[in-house]
Write a structure and sequence with these properties.
By secondary structure, this protein is an alpha+beta fold. The protein is built from twelve helices and 19 strands.
Length: 382
């Protein structure tokens, strides 16, 4: 198992960003592979990788919040190795020219998803990954309870199959821009100075399309609707989000990710409060008075609930662990809170009325005063 990030950096959980940076700087200088002897280099590289990963997470508020809430599993599910380091401020620690690609790529090659070699030459331009896309999915409360698999249709941009993404007819080679000679920049004279500006014709690409691909009109991508199989875990709620890796738009550098926003449709039987469910249960006034058992529908099937004698209308009973599973811990379930509503009949048969009048007489009620008797009867079971 991975060690705790706070433990790795030797800081408390309430440490601010400045403390995180200070702790990392001290450890980074200590375990920097260029500062140790040759026999200790391999061990130092592993330690440097470990503290850099901890710093990449704890120095970023969003990643840190995910880690504090879900631990390493939250980071592993939501971030690739490259994502962990993206956005982290390494330059203020290692000085100018100490960007993320240069430092981690120099010491660890491609293990972080960066190009190897950290020399002083120009960096090689990486192909752009496709954009992430967002999509809203609706599931039933019963599906959120048990988890489900669905095939969803997602429209997205994909690399044009006819031009292979370069936008030129039949995928032919692009030509060097005549304006900038393929450099992507043009020199502008301004008094005693010469300024380099982005080429207006190729927009910095250095190459231009002479004849556009008719399939994508020179865009390099086409709009496609894909069927994507998604497994939805137990316990999802309306504020739940899911990330499906590699199912975003497809670009020259690979596919982006698909972010699903979950909407759970309301179930007329229940009111959901986090992992708990609330419901109303109609019970006859006889059963409420004498006691008995009542069947209750739950998402896991019908159960029998005991109704004590003399139960008043509005009394709430708890069915333990019959609510929704916790999305972060599916073995833990909420409860169902059942509010008993006594069902007072609106019409009585002659036999029912006679028996109730006898009951009223035995209870000292004035059964002949029908209005008074009716009001008291209803009041008893409100």
């Amino acid at each position: 198992m991975k060690k705790d990030y706070y433990e790795i950096l030797g800081i408390k959980k309430d440490a601010d960003v400045a403390e995180v940076k200070k702790a990392y700087r001290q450890l980074a200088m200590r375990y920097h592979p260029d500062r140790v002897e040759e026999k200790e280099k391999k061990q130092a590289e592993e330690k440097f990788k470990e503290i850099s990963e901890a710093y990449g997470v704890l120095s970023d508020p969003k990643k840190r919040q995910t880690y504090d809430q879900y631990g390493h599993s939250g980071i592993d599910q939501n971030y690739t190795s490259e994502d962990i380091f993206r956005g982290a401020d390494f330059s203020s620690i290692f000085g100018d020219g100490g960007g993320l690609d240069d430092i981690l790529g120099q010491f660890f090659g491609s293990s972080f998803g960066f190009g190897g070699g950290g020399g002083g030459g120009a960096r090689q331009r990486r192909a752009v990954r496709g954009r992430d896309i967002q999509y809203e999915v609706e599931i039933l409360l019963a599906e959120a309870y048990s988890g489900t698999k669905k095939t969803i249709k997602v429209p997205r941009n994909e690399v044009c199959q006819d031009c292979h993404g370069n936008g030129a007819k039949n995928g032919t080679a692009l030509s060097d821009c005549e304006t900038c000679g393929g450099r992507g920049q043009v020199m502008m004279n301004s008094g005693y100075f010469r300024l380099a500006q982005t080429c207006p014709d190729c927009r910095g690409a250095g190459r231009v399309i002479r004849e556009s691909c008719p399939s994508c009109r020179g865009q390099g991508y086409t709009r496609i609707t894909r069927n994507i199989d998604v497994t939805f875990p137990k316990g999802l709620d309306n504020d739940s989000q899911m990330r499906v890796r590699g199912e975003g738009e497809v670009g020259p550098g690979g596919a982006g990710d698909l972010y699903l926003y979950i909407r759970v449709t309301a179930d007329p039987r229940f009111r959901r409060v986090h992992n708990d469910l609330e419901m109303d249960l109609l019970v006859s006034f006889v059963k409420a008075a004498l006691g008995g058992e009542a069947g209750v529908e739950t998402l896991s099937g019908p159960v029998t609930m005991k109704i004590p004698a003399g139960t008043e209308s509005g009394k709430v009973f708890r069915l333990k662990a019959k609510g929704m599973p916790d999305v972060h811990d599916p073995s833990h379930y909420g409860d169902i809170y059942v509010r008993v509503m006594v069902d007072v009949p609106k019409k009585l048969s002659s036999d029912q009325r006679r028996l109730l009048e006898e009951f009223a007489k035995a209870s000292g009620e004035d059964a002949n005063n029908s209005a008074s008797f009716k009001d008291k009867f209803k009041k008893a079971f409100k």
